[in-house]
Amino acid sequence: MTLTRNQPINPIPQTRNQKTQSQSSSSSSSRSGMKLIVPLQGVVQGRSGFLLGISIPCALFYFLQLYLKRRRPNPNPSSPSSSSSPTLLLPRTSSRSNLSSRGSISRVRLSKLATILSKPDDSLYYLGLDRVSKDPYDVLVNPHGIIQLGLSDNKLCFDLIEKWLVKNLEGSMMGNGDINLSINGIVPYQPHHGLNELKIALADFMRQIMGGSVEFDPSNMVLTSGATPAIEILSFCLADQGNAFLVPTPYYPGFDRDIRWRPGIDLIPVHCRSTDNFNLNIAALEQAYSQARKRGVKVRGILISNPSNPVGNILTPDMLFSLLDFAEDKNIHIIADEVFAGSTYGSEEFVSIAEVLDSEYIDKSRVHIIYSLSKDLSIAGFRVGVIHSYNQAVLEAAKKMSRFSSISAPTQRLVTSMLSDKRFIQEYIETNRNRIRRIHDEFVDCLNKLGIKCAKSSAGMFCWADMSGLIKPYSEKGEHELWEKFINVAKINITPGSACHCIEPGWFRICFTTISFEEIPLVIERIRKVVESCKSSS
Amino acid sequence: MTLTRNQPINPIPQTRNQKTQSQSSSSSSSRSGMKLIVPLQGVVQGRSGFLLGISIPCALFYFLQLYLKRRRPNPNPSSPSSSSSPTLLLPRTSSRSNLSSRGSISRVRLSKLATILSKPDDSLYYLGLDRVSKDPYDVLVNPHGIIQLGLSDNKLCFDLIEKWLVKNLEGSMMGNGDINLSINGIVPYQPHHGLNELKIALADFMRQIMGGSVEFDPSNMVLTSGATPAIEILSFCLADQGNAFLVPTPYYPGFDRDIRWRPGIDLIPVHCRSTDNFNLNIAALEQAYSQARKRGVKVRGILISNPSNPVGNILTPDMLFSLLDFAEDKNIHIIADEVFAGSTYGSEEFVSIAEVLDSEYIDKSRVHIIYSLSKDLSIAGFRVGVIHSYNQAVLEAAKKMSRFSSISAPTQRLVTSMLSDKRFIQEYIETNRNRIRRIHDEFVDCLNKLGIKCAKSSAGMFCWADMSGLIKPYSEKGEHELWEKFINVAKINITPGSACHCIEPGWFRICFTTISFEEIPLVIERIRKVVESCKSSS
């Protein structure tokens, strides 16, 4: 599903134009056909040079038309436009009773984008999610169902969230002693880009989650219903249809959807390798940039996910500086998706690009941060995301676009209250980190015992596992077949590297926060079956 | 703010092409200039016909080029592309310390759309909303502030909503005896296009609100965070950038935003007149359609708001049949925005297009209904909208796009519970209708006494008032000046007809559900001041 609206669009209704042109040219060609003989006689006879003079340019013009017509691509052969649709040539009647007997004469046309999106997904990422939704594992109801390890949902601390909600739900939305709220605060229209109270609470939460070493300004924020629309809105702001962003691979499969579909912006992969633990290097970035420019593509930005999804590694401050230099040198934007900033468990410390920006000589107006509460606070169902930008024009435009993705006021009140409960948040952050670390360490250890190594990682809800030894052939096809074994035989949904545009086959993203610690043996047992069947067949 | 991404985009870098063409043609023209004399002599002398034969087609070709070049629009003169931006020609250095001393050499470029949206709004509709937000009337805190009569917010029944929330909030979201809910139902990811329970409850609410005479199928629904993204998503589904929808005027100012901005679809006004009480007629529709086709514009649909916003009149079943015939004949879509379906107070009965469709011979796949709970249930802050389509491909595509506009799960649970409370809903619908009728009748009566007549209406939260007698000159300028008097002198924000693309100057939309019945005299008094000042100055 990588096709987008960004198709070559010809604003002129070509078919008709061409027809008229070719008709007139073909009539002139028949004329010129006849005239080729007559004037040649004339030339021989020393007269009729006038006719020859007319016929030569006409013939040249005809062949030029023919050449251009053949070179021009057929506009949307799969989706006939209403003007050229052959079905429209059927005799029509305005009598409704006649129409009924034949049904609809011509199916009404959809947009190119809808025509593509209406078909089933071809990415294994979405296919996997779809398969789980039809046969989800449940220890009691469906113990042989598919276990979801393909979605970064964090269920490790639902108990804490539930406890808080039971205690605080009513007061947080309808007002209590602490908060002076009335029905006017939740029922009528509210600012589309988010309530100021929530922005303040969120800025403080982000500061906390990032170790207290960086401040976020609520007035630089536009709230959206999740990180997904935040990325889409930013894309609409930063680039025009047909422009491109550079994206280090492997990358989160959703970026294709958020940036290509409606904004029509292309993603140019910058391949990172296992030999570098999939760390980004500036040389690869420079190369991808200059190759794009050579192809005539306008690169408008670089999109990084830090901590990386799917690898789980973290960009060093040095790399962030280099990225800022690179962006300044090329005069392009940086979009930093930092949604996993608080879900760290490793030895590396997360540093937000906002912290690096504090150096005064850096132009902040090109830096835009995406954050959400779906990962670090695990309330994905609440749909709370944010664009934090230093560019006032981007903020103004994003505020206007946020009408299409605004968060419901009751949820905003609820989340404001939750984030403002300092004791709860402190407890949540610590407990969540401990639980992620514990399950990560155990899960990766178990994989190691099966002979599966993972990339070195420090954050996120997944490991990036090297199963290249299990695939045959060593190609995307082999990877695809292994994925099918996992979902069909082992009943486990994981995300293959190809869905993340990884250049090396055999890597898989496995989310471990969708299960409980106690379910690890069950999952590992299912993986073991596949590993053993692969080894026995090789 | 009517400019959009939908600029005439020429995929060929025109300026260069044209230059080459005109250069070659102008050189041929200088040749042909000289040659016009020489061959004429030759003709006279009975020779050089060959040269004349060459020069005539060349001259014709030159003038054709000149003609086409003049007709072609200049692509986006206001937003220079980076390749042509003069700032980029400045010498650059990669040294950061150098950069710091001069600040950023070249401002990073935004998209064309963001460049437009980052500027202040030029529509009086948005200007008015903005003015109110800065100086809102409050009887206690700011009694001389601006009274909001420019937004279709219905505050008449907040007491009922509040009473229900106080009683049911906690149970509806966290589960109680009736509803078996767990934390898994609100905290993790839920289907982006809405919970099935909410779709069922909403379908039932729509049936109720439309008099019980039509059924809606929950499986034909895609839920969105309000009608605004519902319209945008439908637009992305039904038409490509540069295509157009026909829209009867006067129309809701938000349509320009929802359909032009990001989908890049043009809106072609179909003007309705005061002499017809602004009712649509098919002849005007036919004319607008054929004129658009002549201009080479592909019309993909017709967008109606029924009941009409801003007029408040209702389409008759006969007109709905005619519209369906028209759409079938042209093979285009119908988008029916029915968000005011339940806010009726007049003698005319509302009939949904869904009801008309029950005739078996109509092709339903071209009909798409927009609905929301912002108007009829007055919970605009909750952001609950829906696309109801009979086209499976549209539903599939819209489901995928709904990720960018999904409703938070807590709100979905809350609203499901509210809609499922039959007794409450019954009471709400009746009370709301009675209160709208009462305030409408009183308000219109008071306006009449001031000499201001309103269009005949039966639904909505506004009256469409004829103040053409108060404007001088009788033009958009006069209308603008009157609007300024209202907002600056009378401190009242109302929506001028020009913001609704009304072809006749002097009409204003006045929302009366944003105030209480008791506040009518205050509002009327403020209006009276303007009326009297206009009369005294004329």
TrEMBL record, chains A, B:
Protein origin, superkingdom: Eukaryota
Biased composition (Low complexity): 21-32, 79-101
EC number: 4.4.1.14
Residues annotated as domain Aminotransferase class I/classII large: 147-527
Record field: transmembrane: 49-68
Cited PANTHER family: AMINOTRANSFERASE ACS12-RELATED, BIFUNCTIONAL ASPARTATE AMINOTRANSFERASE AND GLUTAMATE/ASPARTATE-PREPHENATE AMINOTRANSFERASE-RELATED
Protein name (database record): 1-aminocyclopropane-1-carboxylate synthase
Entry's Gene Ontology BP terms: ethylene biosynthetic process; fruit ripening
Sorted UniProt keywords: Ethylene biosynthesis, Fruit ripening, Membrane, Pyridoxal phosphate, S-adenosyl-L-methionine, Transmembrane, Transmembrane helix
One function term, GO molecular function aspect: 1-aminocyclopropane-1-carboxylate synthase activity
Polar residues bias locations: 1-20
Region (Disordered): 1-33, 73-101
Record note on quaternary structure: Homodimer.
Reaction(s) catalysed (UniProt annotation): S-adenosyl-L-methionine = 1-aminocyclopropane-1-carboxylate + S-methyl-5'-thioadenosine + H(+)
Pfam families: Aminotran_1_2
Record pathway: Alkene biosynthesis; ethylene biosynthesis via S-adenosyl-L-methionine; ethylene from S-adenosyl-L-methionine: step 1/2
Similarity-based family: Belongs to the class-I pyridoxal-phosphate-dependent aminotransferase family.
Gene3D superfamilies xref list: Aspartate Aminotransferase, domain 1, Type I PLP-dependent aspartate aminotransferase-like (Major domain)
